[in-house]
Amino acid sequence: MRNFTTTLHKKKPWAKALLSIGGGASNSSAFAAIAANPSLRATFIASTINVARNYGFDGLDLDWEFPATQQDMSNLATLFAEWRTAVNKESVTSSRPRRPRLLLSAAVYFASNFFLSSTPRAFPAESINKNLDFVNVMCYDYHGSWDTSATGAHALLYDRTSNISTSYGVGSWISAGVGPRKVVMGLPLYGRTWQLKDPAVHGIGAPAVGVGPGAGGVLTFREIVDFNGRNKATTVYDADTISTYSFAGNAWIGYDGVWSVRGKVQYAKARGLASIAWNS
């Protein structure tokens, strides 16, 4: 990790490195236990700061997927507040000359609230806006292998038929009180695939009978480019949803291509967002 941060710090202009803790395969219950207990919160906070400084990181990111109850969300708000107090104090008292404060961020659900869940809950937007430098909003995985009945644009910007879209999700964060300049819009560097029921019917929402190529119906962007080239796939940019898909035979892939990325970047600029982030 020290080699990683040192390499980034040699870049001109200076590039910053954040250590992300958690992820999709991490133990959500462990995070819940930490956030609920004052002693465990203090231990976690001190440990993360120590690791960040030892390896030269410029900040810390929490990727808790996901708080399961509103009480978890309340505890998360407390964790963020105590974390911010601790990094503020550490930057002032740890050494001379004063070191820049460690940045704090979090990876979060595409919307500020889990409106699709049987357990409705909302992220602590006030605490996030006050204590974090930014949030990485997961604007992808709207559709996938859990629904093989129809193709889906898994990271579409607009959806006229539902609120499952990036525009709705980003808007919900801003409406909840998180400033646009603290919102980073996540984009996927991978696609999700389906097997078409009828190769002649191949639009978004076309009938499907299962996942297509790739492990679990997922292809990296490089694999998509290779697949499209090998199979002479037809590539379609859908201007209504701001998404891209390709098809060849009965294989269908939904992903972000050049034009859909451009559309999303334009949207991010128009909304005054902090940035975009790639997720692989």
Automatic annotation (TrEMBL):
<comment type="similarity">
    <text>Belongs to the glycosyl hydrolase 18 family. Chitinase class V subfamily.</text>
</comment>
<dbReference type="GO" id="GO:0006032">
    <property type="term" value="P:chitin catabolic process"/>
</dbReference>
<dbReference type="InterPro" id="IPR011583">
    <property type="entry name" value="Chitinase_II/V-like_cat"/>
</dbReference>
<dbReference type="InterPro" id="IPR050314">
    <property type="entry name" value="Glycosyl_Hydrlase_18"/>
</dbReference>
<feature type="domain" description="GH18">
    <location>
        <begin position="1"/>
        <end position="280"/>
    </location>
</feature>
<dbReference type="InterPro" id="IPR001579">
    <property type="entry name" value="Glyco_hydro_18_chit_AS"/>
</dbReference>
<dbReference type="GO" id="GO:0008061">
    <property type="term" value="F:chitin binding"/>
</dbReference>
<dbReference type="InterPro" id="IPR017853">
    <property type="entry name" value="GH"/>
</dbReference>
<dbReference type="InterPro" id="IPR029070">
    <property type="entry name" value="Chitinase_insertion_sf"/>
</dbReference>
<keyword id="KW-0378">Hydrolase</keyword>
<dbReference type="GO" id="GO:0005576">
    <property type="term" value="C:extracellular region"/>
</dbReference>
<protein>
    <recommendedName>
        <fullName>GH18 domain-containing protein</fullName>
    </recommendedName>
</protein>
<keyword id="KW-0326">Glycosidase</keyword>
<dbReference type="Pfam" id="PF00704">
    <property type="entry name" value="Glyco_hydro_18"/>
</dbReference>
<keyword id="KW-0325">Glycoprotein</keyword>
<dbReference type="InterPro" id="IPR001223">
    <property type="entry name" value="Glyco_hydro18_cat"/>
</dbReference>
<dbReference type="GO" id="GO:0005975">
    <property type="term" value="P:carbohydrate metabolic process"/>
</dbReference>
<keyword id="KW-0732">Signal</keyword>
<dbReference type="GO" id="GO:0004568">
    <property type="term" value="F:chitinase activity"/>
</dbReference>
